[in-house]
Write a structure and sequence with these properties.
This protein is an alpha+beta fold. The chain has one domain (23-194): Muramoyl-pentapeptide Carboxypeptidase, domain 2 (2-Layer Sandwich), CATH 3.30.1380. 41% of the residues lie in helices and 20% in strands. The protein contains seven helices and nine strands. The protein has helices at 2-17, 23-28, 36-42, 53-61, 89-106, 119-126, 160-175, and strands at 65-67, 71-72, 75-77, 86-88, 110-114, 144-152, 155-156, 179-184, 189-194. Strands 2, 3, 5, 6, 7, 8 and 9 form a seven-stranded mixed beta sheet that branches. A two-stranded antiparallel ribbon has the order 1-4. Strand 2 and strand 3 form a beta hairpin. Helix 5 packs across helix 7 (160-175). The chain is globular, with a radius of gyration of 18 Å.
């Protein structure tokens, strides 16, 4: 019985230590033309690709990644399973300003559904979300977050009025050279990458 238990534990340790991605393969994946500006923008904050929790924690210790509040004026963070509530400072500030502006216009709040992901997190997410990039994502640099466009004031339902107001805020920040964004249909969210303005 003890031998069987030891065997199981050693096999489990080996499986856990294996990466679910190959960095060389990941780096070879060519981003779409629409997504290339997101990747270029995300690489301008002095954070290298976040492969693992160890590298992620290194950037927290250096002060390059900062914690994002679970709730603030204009937004709430949903429970995160595949990402971590940290961003580069400018991305956190931009999220807070966008949320505050949205709240001023609507007296409502939106829901942040994803924040920073390591390649390990991304690999786990890809198993349940086909939108999760096989290659590199701007989430892997701490410069991106997703905002749901079907969840406002913690209600999961379509609200065309609030969605339009959110898109107005996004467009204003985009036109000011502060962000890029993509409306993802399958996951009902806006993927926002912050620029180093």
């Amino acid at each position: 019985m003890k031998l069987l238990l030891l065997f199981f534990l050693s096999v489990s340790a080996v499986v856990k230590s294996q990466k679910c991605y190959d960095l060389k393969t990941v780096l070879k994946v060519e981003p779409s033309e629409l997504y290339k500006p997101h990747l270029l923008a995300s690489q301008n904050f002095g954070v290298n690709i976040l492969e693992s929790a160890k590298i992620f924690n290194h950037y927290i210790a250096k002060g390059k990644l900062v914690a994002v509040k679970k709730k603030s004026r204009g937004y709430r963070m949903q429970a995160l399973e595949y990402s971590r509530p940290y961003l580069v400072k400018k991305a956190r500030t931009t999220l807070e300003r966008m949320a505050s502006q949205f709240a001023s216009k609507t007296k409502s709040f939106f829901v942040v559904s994803s924040v920073t992901r390591t390649l390990e997190d991304q690999c786990r997410l890809r198993k349940v979300n086909s939108n999760a990039s096989l290659g590199i994502s701007s989430h892997n640099y701490g410069a991106a977050f997703d905002i749901s466009y079907v969840r406002f004031d913690n209600q999961l339902k379509v609200n065309t009025k609030l969605e339009k107001e959110l898109e107005k805020v996004l467009l204003e920040f985009k036109n000011a050279g502060k962000i890029f964004y993509i409306k993802e249909r399958q996951q009902s969210c806006y993927h926002i990458t912050v620029r180093n303005y």
